[in-house]
Write a structure and sequence with these properties.
Length: 1032
C-alpha cells in the first residue's frame, strides 16, 4: 500500500486524477502537480516511494516515473540547458539515486524501462563526478550477481548510457569488465529471456561504434581490440543464427545479431574476413530459404518488446535480405551463386515469392489507390516485405548484370508459374486460383524493373529470354481476366513498359482496348475498380509517351493507327485530371495528387498528336491549368508538370495566340508564365506580363509568388534588359519605369520578415541586374545593397547566406565600382542588430565564417578573388575586424561526456580578417592538393575512384596542422616574409582553378561551363596566383 503520509496520499490522488478521462479534472490535477513540484522539496522522493510500491496500480507507478523524468529535466541541475528551477538539494538527489538502482529489479518490464530512462537522464549531469559508482553498481552488482530482472533493467540502462552519455574513453574503460558479462548473458539462452540477450548484443554494437570513432586517434585499436573481440563473439553469433528455434520471440535476438554484423562490416570491413563473410552468408541464406517457404501470407503474428519495437516474420526476413544485399559484392559470395546456377534460380524464386501481394496490402490498395501509387512510385514510407524484396532484387540484378541473369530468371519464372498451376490438382477449394494470380502479378512486377535490358537483348540475343512466349501465355491471358482487376491492370501496365518490343498490330490493339474500356466507363457510368482504372490511365500514358516520343518505323505505323483516337484520348486524360484534382463542378470528387500526376504527362504528350483537335480543347485546357495551378501552387512537382504541359501548348501555333491574354488576366500569383511566353518569342513581348508583375508584387505578400518571381525576373534580364528600361507605366502618378518595378519587387523579396526559402536565389538576380545595368542602376544601388545587408545580417540558411554574399563578391571582384566606395558605404551602414558594429563588420564576419562551406566552382573562385582584393586593400578598418579562427582548447578538467559536450558550445580563437583570408587560401590549397594526390594515386594504381575510396577509407585524412596566427592589430605589416613568400609562390591557380584532373573538379567545371555567361566571364579562367601577387 502507498504510505499513509499526507504528502504521499495527496500526491497519489493527484496522479490518479491525471489519468482521468474527464478533461477538466485532468487539467486541474496537472496544475496541482506542477505546484507541488515548485513548493515541496520532497517531491521527487515521494514520486520514488509511489513508484517502488508494487501493490500500487501500474499506471500510477509508471506515471510517477514519467513525472520524475520530467522533474529531472527541469529541476535537477542548473547546468541543464532546460533548467527552470528550483534546483534539487544534494541530500534529495542522493536519496533519489539510492532508490532508483533497486527499482531496476522490479518484476514489471515497463517499470524497469522507465527507471532506466530516469537513471540515464540523471547521469547526463551527475556522472561521473556526482555518481562515481554508477557503472560499478550496474555491472558488478546487477549483471554479475543479479537476478533476471536486475540483469534486464541494468542492460536497458547501460544501453541508454552508452548510446547517449558515455564518452569513447569511458566506454573503453569499462569494456574489459563489461564484455565478458555480456557474452555470458548472451550465450545463456536457458536462463535469460530473448529481450535480455538482445540487449547484450545492442550494447556490444554500441561498443563497436565507439571503437570505430576512436580509430583515427588510436591506430592500433583494430589489432589490439577489434580483432580479439570478433574472434570471441563471431562463434556465438554463428551458433545463434544456426539455432533452429525461429519463434517470433527468438527472432528479435537474431535480428539484432544480423544488424550488429552489418555494423561491423561497415565500420571494420578489413577485420571482417572473407572466410567469416562466406560462413555467415551461407547460414543466413539458408535461414532466408527456410523462413520464406514457411511464411504465411494471410496472417503475420506481431510481438511488441519493452522498447516498443515490433518483431514478426516479415521483419526477420527483411533483416536477412539486408545482410544478403550488403554482401552481394564479395567475390566469394558471387562464386556461391555462379558456381551453382541452382542457387541463383532458388534466390530468384524467393524474390517472386516475397513480392506476391499479401491480403493486408491488397485490402489497403483496393480501399485507397493513392497508397498503391505511392508504393509504385517509391514514395511510401510504409513497410511491406514486398517493397524490401523488390529493392534487393533490383540491386541483385544490377550487381550481377541483367544479361547474365536472364536465362536463370526465365527458369525461376517458369518454375514459379508451373508450381502455381500444379496446385490446382490438389486444391479442391479453388484456392490455387487466388494464389496463381498473385504469382503472375509478382512475375510481371519484377520483370517490369528490367524492361529496358530485356528489350535490348531481344534484338541481339533473343534466346536469353523468350519474351514472345511470355506475352502469349501470360500477359495476353491475364489482360482479359476481368475478375482480377489488380492482375488485369498489372498486365496492361507491364505491356506499356514493353511497348517498344510489341508488333504494331499488337500495340495498337492494346491501346485501343484501354481506350475502349475507359470510354465505356465514361459513357455508361459503369464504374470499374479504382485500382484498375488507375493502372489503365498509367498504362495509356506510357503507351502514348512511347509511341509519340519515338519515330521508329514500327511506331510510325502505330501513330497513324491511333490518329482517329486523339479526341477520345484527350477526353480521357482531361476528365481524369479534373476528377483527381477535385475541380469538377457539382461533384464531390476524391482529390488525389498521386492520381493527378499519373495523367498530366499523358495529357501533355497526347496534346501533340493532332494540332487541330488539340485546338478544340484550348479553353478546357486553359481552365484546367489555371485552376489546378492555383490549387497546387505549393506542390512543386505538380506545378512543374503543369508548366511543361503549358509549354507544350505554346508550341502549337493554333493555340499560342490566345494564351498570353487568357492566362495573364486569369492568374495573379503565377509569375512563371512569363518565362514560357518569352521562350517562344524572338523579341520581348512580355510588356503586359511584366507590368502585371510590377503592380501585383509590391502589394501581395505571397511567398510562393516571390520564390517563382525570381526565376521569372532572371529570364527577363537574360532576354532583354533594354526592354525593361524602356517600359513606362503611365497609369500611376508619378509614372513608373520597368526598373522601378523591378527594384520594388526585389525589395519585397529581401524583407527580413519573409521566410528564408522565399529568397534563396534573389542574390543571383541582383548580381545579374548589377552586371547588366552599367551605370543605369546607380540611383537604386545604395538601397538595394542596404536591403541585401539587412537580409544577410539575419540569414540562417547557408545557401541563402552564400547567395547574398556573392552580390558583394561580384562587386568587389569585378571592380565595377571603386573598392574604397564600397568599404565606406558598408562602414557607415548601421544595422538593427547588436551583434555587429556596422555593415562592414557584419559582412566580413559572416563571409569569413561561411567561406569554407561555399559550393560551386565559379562562386568559390569569385569569392576567393574578392577576398584577395580586400586583403590587398590593407584598409585599417578591415584589420580591426576580428573573426572566428581555430577551435579553442578547453581548460575544463572535468570528463566531457557526450551530454556535456552538447550543452557546452565550442569556443574559438579570434583572428584578424587579413589573417583569416590567408588561412582560407592555404586551407583551400591544402585540401585541393590532398584530393589531387589521392586522385593521382588512385589513377596510378589503376583503380577507379570508388575502389580507391574503399581501399583508403582508413588512411584518407585532410591534415590541417598549421599553427594559428597571433591576434595582432597590425597583423598584415608583421606577417612573416616566409609566409608571404610561400603564398606568392605556391600554385594559387590550384586553389581557384583546380587544374588537376580530379573527378570533383571536372564535375564542378562541367556544371559551371554549361552556364554560358560564367564561361565567358574573365574570372572563369583567371589565374589566382597573378591576382594575389597583384593585390599584395
Amino acid at each position: 500500500m502507498v504510505s499513509s503520509s499526507n504528502g504521499l496520499s495527496e500526491l497519489y490522488s493527484i496522479l490518479s486524477m491525471c489519468l482521468s478521462n474527464e478533461s477538466n479534472q485532468r487539467i486541474n490535477a496537472e496544475q496541482a502537480l506542477q505546484l507541488k513540484k515548485q513548493s515541496e522539496v520532497s517531491f521527487p522522493v515521494n514520486l520514488i516511494h509511489i513508484a517502488t510500491s508494487q501493490p500500487t496500480d501500474i499506471a500510477i507507478r509508471q506515471l510517477s516515473l514519467v513525472t520524475l523524468k520530467s522533474y529531472v529535466t527541469y529541476s535537477w541541475s542548473s547546468t541543464n540547458f532546460k533548467f527552470t528551477g528550483p534546483e534539487t538539494p544534494e541530500n534529495i538527489k542522493t536519496a533519489v539515486k539510492n532508490s532508483l538502482l533497486p527499482l531496476l529489479a522490479d518484476p514489471l518490464s515497463k517499470i524497469r524501462v522507465q527507471t532506466a530512462q530516469v537513471i540515464s537522464k540523471i547521469a547526463t549531469t551527475d556522472f561521473p563526478e556526482s555518481w562515481p559508482n554508477l557503472l560499478e553498481d550496474l555491472i558488478v552488482k546487477n549483471l554479475k550477481n543479479g537476478n533476471q530482472f536486475q540483469i534486464h533493467g541494468s542492460m536497458r540502462c547501460l544501453a541508454d548510457l552508452i548510446n547517449c552519455d558515455l564518452s569513447e574513453d569511458q566506454i573503453m574503460a569499462i569494456a574489459p569488465t563489461l564484455l565478458p558479462e555480456l557474452q555470458r548473458i548472451f550465450g545463456d539462452h536457458k536462463n535469460n529471456e530473448p529481450s535480455v540477450r538482445q540487449k547484450a548484443v545492442v550494447i556490444f554494437e554500441e561498443i563497436i561504434k565507439a571503437l570505430y570513432n576512436m580509430k583515427e586517434t588510436h591506430k592500433s585499436i583494430s589489432k589490439n581490440y577489434v580483432q580479439p573481440l570478433l574472434t570471441n563473439w563471431f562463434p556465438v553469433f554463428f551458433n545463434c543464427l544456426q539455432d533452429t528455434n525461429d519463434e517470433v520471440n527468438n527472432m528479435s535476438v537474431k535480428i539484432q545479431v544480423i544488424q550488429t554484423l552489418l555494423t561491423i562490416r561497415k565500420t571494420f570491413r578489413r577485420e571482417f574476413s572473407k572466410e567469416d563473410a562466406k560462413k555467415f552468408f551461407e547460414v543466413i541464406y539458408q535461414k532466408l530459404v527456410q523462413t520464406s517457404l514457411t511464411r504465411v501470407e494471410q496472417s503475420i503474428d506481431d510481438v511488441l518488446d519493452s522498447d516498443g519495437e515490433i518483431t514478426n516474420t516479415d521483419n526477420f526476413i527483411s533483416t536477412l535480405l539486408d545482410f544478403i544485399l550488403v554482401f552481394f559484392e564479395e567475390k566469394s559470395i558471387k562464386n556461391f551463386f555462379f558456381t551453382n546456377s541452382g542457387n541463383l534460380v532458388h534466390l530468384l524464386e524467393i524474390f517472386i515469392h516475397l513480392t506476391k501481394v499479401d491480403d493486408v496490402q491488397l485490402d489497403i490498395w483496393m480501399e485507397n489507390v493513392d497508397e498503391f501509387l505511392n508504393e509504385e512510385n517509391e514514395l511510401s514510407f510504409n513497410f511491406f516485405l514486398r517493397k524490401k524484396a523488390y529493392e534487393v532484387y533490383c540491386e541483385f540484378m544490377q550487381e550481377f548484370g541483367v544479361e547474365n541473369l536472364l536465362p536463370v530468371l526465365e527458369d525461376a519464372i517458369n518454375k514459379a508459374l508451373w508450381d502455381a498451376d500444379q496446385k490446382k490438382h490438389t486444391d479442391k477449394n479453388c484456392h490455387h486460383l487466388f494464389q496463381r494470380w498473385k504469382v503472375h502479378e509478382a512475375v510481371m512486377y519484377l520483370l517490369a524493373e528490367v524492361s529496358e535490358e530485356v528489350i535490348e537483348t531481344q534484338a541481339i540475343k533473343p534466346h536469353l529470354f523468350d519474351l514472345n512466349s511470355f506475352f502469349e501465355k501470360v500477359v495476353l491471358v491475364d489482360a482479359q481476366l476481368s475478375g482480377y482487376p489488380f492482375l488485369q491492370g498489372r498486365a496492361f501496365s507491364f505491356s506499356s513498359l514493353y511497348a517498344g518490343f510489341l508488333q504494331p498490330d499488337t500495340l495498337t490493339n492494346f491501346i485501343t482496348f484501354v481506350v475502349q474500356m475507359l470510354m465505356e466507363e465514361k459513357l455508361t457510368k459503369n464504374k470499374i475498380p479504382k485500382i484498375l482504372k488507375c493502372l489503365l490511365i498509367k498504362s495509356l500514358s506510357k503507351f502514348i509517351i512511347e509511341v509519340f516520343g519515338n519515330n521508329t518505323s514500327n511506331l510510325l505505323v502505330v501513330q497513324g493507327n491511333l490518329r482517329h483516337l486523339t479526341k477520345d484520348i484527350l477526353e480521357i486524360f482531361l476528365e481524369f485530371c479534373i476528377e483527381s484534382s477535385g475541380l469538377r463542378e457539382g461533384f464531390d470528387d476524391e482529390v488525389s495528387v498521386e492520381r493527378l500526376s499519373c495523367c498530366i504527362e499523358g495529357l501533355r504528350v497526347s496534346s501533340g498528336m493532332n494540332k487541330e483537335i488539340t485546338a478544340m480543347f484550348e479553353k478546357d485546357f486553359s481552365k484546367f491549368i489555371v485552376s489546378a495551378w492555383a490549387k497546387y501552387i505549393d506542390d512543386v512537382f505538380i506545378s512543374e508538370m503543369l508548366l511543361d504541359f503549358f509549354e507544350s501548348l505554346t508550341k502549337n501555333e493554333l493555340v499560342f495566340k490566345n494564351l498570353e491574354e487568357s492566362f495573364i488576366t486569369s492568374v495573379l500569383p503565377l509569375l512563371d508564365i512569363g518565362v514560357q511566353i518569352l521562350g517562344n518569342s524572338e523579341t520581348f513581348k512580355g510588356e503586359k506580363t511584366f507590368m502585371f508583375c510590377g503592380v501585383v508584387c509590391p502589394v501581395e505578400n505571397l511567398e510562393n509568388m516571390f520564390s517563382n518571381g525570381q526565376f521569372f525576373l532572371e529570364s527577363l534580364l537574360n532576354k532583354n534588359y533594354e526592354g525593361i528600361l524602356n517600359l513606362k507605366d503611365t497609369t500611376v502618378i508619378p509614372p513608373k519605369s520597368g526598373l522601378d518595378y523591378l527594384v520594388l519587387f526585389l525589395g519585397k523579396i529581401l524583407d527580413p520578415n519573409l521566410e528564408e526559402n522565399s529568397a534563396f536565389f534573389v542574390g543571383d538576380v541582383i548580381t545579374k541586374l548589377i552586371l547588366k545595368s552599367g551605370g543605369t542602376l546607380n540611383n537604386y544601388l545604395p538601397d538595394l545593397l542596404k536591403a541585401v545587408s539587412f537580409r544577410l545580417s539575419n540569414a540562417k540558411i547557408p545557401s541563402l547566406i552564400q547567395n547574398l554574399i556573392m552580390v558583394f563578391a561580384h562587386l568587389i571582384a569585378k571592380e565595377q565600382y571603386d573598392l574604397e566606395i564600397i568599404i565606406n558605404f558598408l562602414y557607415e551602414l548601421k544595422l538593427f542588430n547588436d551583434s555587429y558594429a556596422n555593415g562592414l563588420d557584419m559582412l566580413i564576419k559572416i563571409w569569413s565564417e561561411n567561406q569554407s562551406f561555399f559550393f560551386g566552382f565559379f562562386d568559390i573562385k569569385v569569392s576567393l578573388v574578392a577576398l584577395t582584393k580586400l586583403y590587398g586593400k590593407a584598409d585599417p578598418r578591415l584589420r580591426q575586424i576580428f573573426v572566428k579562427g581555430d577551435l579553442k582548447l578547453s581548460n575544463d578538467l572535468k570528463i566531457k561526456t557526450r551530454s556535456r559536450a552538447r550543452q557546452l558550445p565550442d569556443e574559438f580563437e579570434m583572428i584578424s580578417f587579413p589573417g583569416k583570408v590567408i588561412k582560407l587560401l592555404i586551407e583551400n590549397y591544402q585540401i585541393n592538393q590532398q584530393v589531387a594526390m589521392n586522385t593521382v594515386k588512385s589513377n596510378t594504381n589503376g583503380k577507379n575512384h570508388f575502389e580507391s575510396k574503399l581501399d583508403s577509407e582508413d588512411e584518407l585524412t585532410f591534415d590541417s596542422e598549421e599553427e594559428g596566427w597571433e591576434d595582432d592589430d597590425d597583423f598584415t605589416s608583421k606577417l612573416s616574409s616566409k609566409n608571404e613568400l610561400f603564398l606568392k609562390n605556391f600554385q594559387m591557380n590550384d586553389v581557384g582553378n583546380f587544374n588537376y584532373e580530379s573527378e570533383d573538379s571536372q564535375e564542378n567545371t562541367f556544371k559551371d561551363k554549361k552556364d554560358k555567361e560564367n564561361a565567358k566571364d574573365p574570372l572563369f579562367t583567371l589565374d589566382l596566383k597573378v591576382c594575389f601577387t597583384n593585390s599584395v
